[in-house]
Amino acid sequence: MQLAIFAMRLLEVLFFVGLAGSTVVVLISFVEDGIELFGKDEKPEPRG
Amino acid sequence: MKAGHRAGKISMASNRTTFAPPSDRVKLIVASSVMLTFISFWRAAAIVLNDLGSSAFYAGGIAEQMVGEAAPWFILGIMLFSFAVRAVYVESCSMFTRAGVYRVVKEALGGGFAKLSVSALMFDYILTGPISGVSAGQYITGLMNELMTVAAQSNWLPPALMDAHHHPFQFDMNHTAAVFAAVVTTYYWWQNIKGIEESSSKALRVMQITTVMVVILLFWGSYSVFFTPGAHLPPSPVPAHLSFSSDALGFLRGAPQLLPLLGLFGILMAFGHSILAMSGEETLAQVNREIQHPKLKNLKRAAIVIAIYSLIFTGGATLLASMLIPPYQIAHVYQDNLIAGLAMYMVGPLFWRIVFRIFVVLVGFLILSGAINTSMIGSTGVLMRVAEDGVLTDWFRKPHSKFGTSYRIVNLVFILQMLTIIASRGDVITLGEAYAFGVIWSFTFNSLAMLVLRWKYKGERGWKVPPNIRIGNFEIPVGLLSVFLVLASTAIVNLFTKSVATISGVLFAAAFFIIFTVSERANQRKHALTAHQMKDFFQLEHQDTVSRESAAIRPGGVMVTMHDASNPFALKWTLSHTSTEEQDVVVINVRMMGAGGPEYLSAVDQSFSEHEQMIFTKAISVAESFGKKVSLLLIPAGDVFAALAQGASSLEVDSVVSGVSSSISAEEQAFHLGLAWEALPQPKRQFNFYVVNSTGEAKVFYIGPHAPKLSAEDVQLVHRLWVNMRRDPSMQDLHHSDIITYALTHLAGQYAREKQEILRDLRNYRATEIPSGVRLGGQDLANSSASSDDVSGQLPSPRPSRYL
Q1: pTM of the model
Q2: Pairing between strand B558-561 and B655-659?
Q3: Domain spanning B41-494, CATH architecture
Q4: What is the pLDDT of residue B14?
């Protein structure tokens, strides 16, 4: 019983710590990808 | 260099007679670059959304059943978190073009874990079909029952469809849905056996129609919320507002003393019960190889489009449904067809609500039945991938004798999907329970592998999941670690709270893991023998890209396809019509790569199947019987016609010869090859395409622009016009070609203004005047649909150097 409760609390901590970090991932990647979406393609450099 | 003769038979991987290897081995060129056609990020996003978007039709209903009225917040949370999961896939795709779970986990954690993760992924893919089919069935059955009720209320229903209590006849939701799912799955099984044409255009069209529905749904839904008395946001996602069903407690039902202590743990449980809303992410890795340049940029664009769309669609629809549909109706009437319920609770006349519901059901049918096909193609692709890797025996790779598809793998997937439909008896909730197992564990394995690869992988990496904190030489992947922690903790919680998923998923994954392991061991011995024989008999030469120079053939050669060792009639026809003193003959076999295959295959990645060995051995045997030389070429490709067009262009051949297909006509073969030729970049050259049937009759098609074949009447007409026009003193220097140029320019201008009228006139003209032919995008392929007599002479000799 004690072990089960400990495991539950441990998983809670891991989950919420991960969720906080994932929020940062979402914010940064959303901005980055949004810039990519509306950005223009670079023209290929002329050969030779 | 060429296969002039053969010293003796070689032994197949099975027990066959073996002769000593010849001293002059035949050169067999194996291309490493896979011949692919590329698509825009919009099309890539549409393909992924066909899979991901389909979950909007059932994920919300299932989550509400499991965790209660706060479910829409968890669905929204999952859709936001899917941005982060997508970031992990983008990083893996920036490292490996074929960055599916199997490849990534194999690279990071080895073959054992890769087999385990691919078993979980197979569970995900296999269940995508039944859950989509059953869900579509639920929407259709729900609509039919609703129409029966409305008809009965309006006294339109015949007495035969009313029971003794004057209630309208109602179809059993689950059983009818299961029958529907079985029928659609059978349809797609047959399409896949025949070799369905994968079309990003079709996916794009479905998503366009879906977008129309989503826009109406969001605007009308928001308007309805504003004018519906009592409409309010669902209760906040805190432990006090969670009410788990008995099923949602899973194994925790056996420990009632733990339930009052759940607290924040309940949030994890609710999150885990909503995870299937983001099923379909793996498809992003599958389509990655086909995304056009600049690949990473376009991949990220596709990823953000997918993320925003699915957030708005899945999250928005679930939220609106919970605000408009009364809780009792959600729990007992619309739990399996939530968006249909949303349509019925909009503000407005009943007629328009029913019309919109019919539209919702139509869109649901399109996207969900598309998901059945995607699941079949996806699971077949994953099994093909492991088969190519030697993890499944060659028995699975054997092509269908008529259609050339990997029918045994398709059959296996079909049987598993039908068994799942029968076992579920059309219950979406049960299917959703089980489905989540594959989804969460394949994501977890993938993120764990990516975490390990941060230290283990030293190759090129185009992008990293942010943020990363650097301390000296040590980099801490904070973002990646965070995503892994959420996925791993959710996966572990699901093990205890989703009993159906845990039992069925573990059994399924264990069964597949055992099959993979046993099969791989048997294969290792067999492939070692095959590889040894191939090296003995053929001089294997791996080349990144194949060119005429590297293949050491002269310009203007003949390329002949061969995919069936028992029917080499195209090769026989070619050799009987070609002087190999003047023209080189190249026998080409296209190795079809499954969905999500790579862009590049190194020599160690390419293991020869027994089937391929037999094809090339037979080609040499036939060439030997004609006393002529042939070159051999193996090209891995995602599309057979793209491979032929690219191969013909690279090798600068004048003719491509193919046996007639058993599934499509010669004209269709030429049409598809023409389309593939159109997609080739410049410079490219024209060639003749001969389609030979088993009796030796051939049809020839000209691929690429060419001078049309004018009839004597046409020439007469031009000449008469020239004579008449030249009478004018100002037209003394008029040429016949001027008349044709003028007529064509005039037609082109008219076509730009009156397209439909011109096409109608042309259709009428062709219907009355001209026998059927083949056209390609307005460009005449001018088939001279000839009998064998017409092409019985030599194949055209090398063209002048203007083509080179």
Answers
A1: 0.70
A2: parallel
A3: Up-down Bundle (1.20)
A4: 36
